[in-house]
Write a structure and sequence with these properties.
Layout: E1 10-15, H1 22-35, E2 40-44, H2 50-60, H3 69-93, E3 97-101, H4 104-114, H5 119-130, E4 137-142, H6 145-153, H7 165-181, E5 186-190, H8 195-209
Parallel strand pairs: 1-3, 1-4, 2-3, 4-5
Helix pairs in contact: 1-8, 2-3, 3-5, 4-5, 4-7
The structure holds thymidine-5'-phosphate.
Thymidine-5'-phosphate (TMP) binds next to helix 4.
């Protein structure tokens, strides 16, 4: 099928607490868009570049290495700065749809609301690493903290998932707070139903912006 070309690329992000199913839904969405002839790039944060994947390993699987709250913030932002210049911006300039699992909202929710790093510190740093790039649409898949954590832990816990439940409760309410503030961009979808029903809601939101 001939690729549909867009005048300008579209940047879509997926967010949510642990175990919300964003990787499944973002991959399904990308396949759907490809089947409709769109050129779609699917990537993730932290990761998506060689540097980003190494940073991801450090952040999620560095047993025994101490990482302070601010070091953690810098590492997430370093990975973001790389993926923005290496992957996201070139793809958007080529008129592609970019779907990214997590982006700046994750840093505000996890390091900010969860880890209590002042939001203005994150805002300043994030502006540098994103060069001001913001998603056109963010799908926030919302799931109850305990349900999500137990779902995520079935695959074994990483360093972030091992943080305590109160931290993860703050992350979830942080996400919901951001969704209230930026309701034009962030669309909340309850992740409790079947995969098919949730995916249908995701596609409805995406169809509105393409
Ligand atoms: P995930 O790919 O399973 O979502 O794992 C990424 C983990 O990293 C998840 O626990 C969320 C966390 N994270 C942050 O704490 N801050 C960030 O800025 C990003 C992108 C992810």
């Amino acid at each position: 099928m001939a690729k549909k070309s867009l005048k300008a690329g579209i940047f879509i992000t997926f967010e949510g607490p642990e175990g919300c199913g964003k990787s499944t839904h973002s991959a399904m969405l990308c396949e759907y868009l490809k089947s409709r002839g769109y050129d779609c790039v699917h990537t993730r944060e932290p990761g998506g570049t060689s540097l980003g994947e190494k940073i991801r390993e450090l952040l999620l699987h560095s047993d025994g290495i101490k990482i302070s709250d601010i070091s953690e913030l810098f590492l997430f932002e370093a990975a973001r700065s790389q993926i923005v210049v290496e992957v996201i911006m070139p793809a958007l300039e080529a008129g592609k749809i970019v779907i990214c699992d997590r982006f700046s909202d994750a840093t505000f929710s996890y390091q900010g609301y969860g880890g209590k790093v002042p939001l203005e510190v994150i805002r300043a740093l994030d502006r540098v690493s994103t060069k001001g790039l913001k998603p056109r649409l963010t799908i926030l898949l919302d799931v109850d903290t305990i349900t999500g954590l137990s779902r995520a832990k079935r695959k074994g816990s990483d360093r972030m998932e091992k943080k305590d439940v109160t931290y993860h409760r703050r992350v979830r309410s942080g996400y919901l707070d951001l969704a209230r503030r930026y309701h034009g961009r962030i669309k909340v979808i309850k992740a409790g139903g079947t995969i098919q029903k949730t995916q249908a809601m995701v596609r409805r939101e995406v169809d509105r912006v393409i």
